[in-house]
Every structure is written in C-alpha cells, then in structure tokens.
C-alpha cells in the first residue's frame, strides 16, 4: 500500500490515481478515504488526478496514540502534498475534513493550492461558547466520546442509520449498503483516534484560519444537515473568507457527497472549471 511517513514517524495511507490537475480529498470523522469513492471515480473519469488519504488513526493509516488534533491533521496533509510535490491543487474537505483543509491552508500557505471546497464542514466553531452562542453544547460532544469509548460499534451503526444520511427522516429509504459501508470505515480506525478527534472537530476555532485564506473557496452545506447545523457553520465561514462562495442546499443530509453525489459532483466540477 502507498504510505508516507510523517516527521513524527506516523505512516499515512493514501490513494493517488490518474494525472492532470490534482484534487485532494480530506474525509470526515470517523471515516476513511473510501468515503470519497463517488467523487474520485467521477473526477478521474474527467481527466483529473485524484488523491485521498486516511487521516492518522483512521482507515489504513497507523493507529498511533497521539497527534489527533487539527495541527497534526494539517501537518499530515502538508506532508502529503510535499511528498507528491503537488502544484495547483484543489482541496476538498467534508465535515472534519473541511476543518483540516482550512487549517492546512492557513497554517502552511497557499503556494501549492489553487482552490478549495468545504462540504458540510465544521468551521468556524462547532461547540457553544460565549463568543459562539449558536454552537452545540459541549455535553453533546462529551456524549459522543462516551459512546465511542463504551459502545462504539452500536454508536456508529446508529449514526449511519440515522442522522448522518437523513435516514431517520419521515419517508426516507435507508440504504443498508451505505449504512454498512459507513460502519465498516469507522470500525477500521482507532477508538483512541476517534475519541480524541471529537475534541479536534468540535473545539477547534477556525475563525482566524478562515480570515487568512485568499484563494477561492466554495462553501457547500445543506439547511437540513443534522450533524453540523447550518446556521452556525457555512454562512459564517463564507463571510469570514476573503473569496468565499456559499452554496446552500435544501433537503440534503450531512453525508450528501454519498447520497447526493450527482449534484455535489456537478457543482464541484463547475466550481473547479470556473
């Protein structure tokens, strides 16, 4: 398997297919690069080079005990772009991966990047604070950690079968294959990485990161997202970005790159080509 070794010795698994302008995909919690199958096949077929990695502690990357925070996530992404010597890359991040992309661009600069898109992403800040009264209470994320530590397999099944894909909504038609694939990806990773990752995605404040980014960024989010509430995320991120464009959907779930791939792929392609 293709892997790179980071400065702290962590082995990061990645996929690198095709040629042409590179598109780099950063996945959500607690998944893996496999969550981008629908996007990678679509863009590969249209002449792009598609790249995705398993975040440290996730998927096939090393299950190291430490470094499960946004600084390390961003540094690992920078290590990947340097390892592959990427230029003019488009970075696409979903959910936690959107935070990873934002923090990478702010922390490591834009010299290797052309554009970015963040989909159902966690910035600017998920947790409720005095400065972010619209956020979710910390108790919500404390409960996530308790579930990961005590009944991870059942919890992941519940998330995939319920709010992640909107399968808990009236009239929804759950896909057993999609639910099992989410569960498979989650259970491949490390409970420790996923436990620590809850803090990383919920408590990292990306406000200053967003302000630093100058390249074009497409902010894609659904008003019906049950995982990352719309009002306290996408519109705020788009305002903080110097060159942000907000694309709002209705009726789509948090996992819309999978269930609404045709729409998401078409909108990403139009943005990349614009």
TrEMBL record:
Q: Provide the protein name.
A: Alpha/beta hydrolase
Transmembrane residues, as ranges?
none
What sequence ranges are listed for the domain AB hydrolase-1? 22-254
What is the protein's species of origin? Answer: Bradyrhizobium aeschynomenes
What InterPro entries does the database record attribute to this sequence?
A: AB_hydrolase, AB_hydrolase_1, AB_hydrolase_fold
Q: Which UniProt keywords apply?
A: Hydrolase
Q: Which Pfam families match?
A: Abhydrolase_1 (PF00561)
Return one GO MF term: hydrolase activity
Top-level taxon of the source organism: Bacteria
């Amino acid at each position: 398997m293709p892997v790179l070794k980071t400065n702290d010795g962590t082995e990061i698994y990645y996929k690198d297919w095709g040629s042409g302008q590179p598109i780099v995909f950063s996945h959500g919690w607690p998944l893996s690069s496999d969550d981008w199958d629908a996007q990678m096949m679509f863009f590969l077929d249209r002449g792009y080079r598609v790249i995705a990695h398993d975040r440290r502690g996730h998927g096939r990357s090393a299950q190291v005990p430490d470094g499960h925070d946004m600084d390390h996530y961003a540094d690992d992404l920078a290590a990947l772009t340097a390892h592959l010597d990427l230029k003019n890359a488009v970075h696409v991040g979903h959910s936690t991966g959107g935070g990873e992309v934002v923090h990478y661009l702010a922390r490591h600069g834009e010299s290797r990047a052309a554009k970015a898109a963040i989909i159902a992403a966690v910035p600017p800040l998920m947790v409720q604070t005095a400065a972010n009264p619209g956020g979710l209470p910390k108790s919500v994320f404390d409960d996530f950690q308790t579930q990961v530590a005590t009944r991870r397999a059942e919890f992941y099944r519940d998330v995939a079968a319920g709010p992640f894909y909107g399968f808990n909504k009236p009239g929804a038609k759950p896909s057993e294959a999609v639910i099992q694939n989410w569960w498979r990806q989650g259970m491949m990773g490390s409970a420790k990485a996923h436990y620590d990752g809850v803090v990383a995605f919920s408590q990292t404040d990306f406000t200053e990161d967003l302000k630093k980014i100058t390249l074009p960024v497409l902010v894609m989010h659904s008003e019906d997202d049950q995982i990352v509430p719309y009002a306290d995320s996408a519109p705020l991120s788009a305002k903080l970005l110097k060159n942000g464009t907000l694309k709002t959907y209705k009726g789509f779930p948090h996992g819309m790159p999978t269930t609404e791939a045709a729409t998401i792929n078409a909108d990403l392609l139009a943005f990349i080509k614009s």
